[in-house]
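Changelog-adjacent note: as of this version, every example in the card shows the full chain rather than a window. The one below runs 120 residues end to end.
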Amino acid sequence: MIGPLATGLIVLSLVIGVWALLNTARDRAMGRVLPVALAVLELGLLVQAGVVAAALARGEGPPGTATVVGYLAGTVLIPPVALFLGYAERSRWGSAVIAVAGFAIPGMVGRLLQIWQGLA
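Full-length structure tokens:
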């Protein structure tokens, strides 16, 4: 895993979560900034997933491969699902869904980093 990339993903995801939470509090739909931010987040998550998958294919990484793959799959699937639901619900609740996704990803990436470093 790339540690600085993981940190960047956590920070970006928290910014997305706060921005979406502010949109929800102001009773606004997601607008134009959140889809772009989610796309950038997804791109970073895909890069991280590719690096981890390549390392696992080489036999590197922690012994709990299934857990790592599960966390990777979850982190990669959350932004597109949140974006879809944000577009489907064009009210403040679409922004709320994106806020939940923005606050879920840092926990998952942080836990994945702990597992990868053998701290779990």
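Structural remarks: The longest helix spans residues 92-117.
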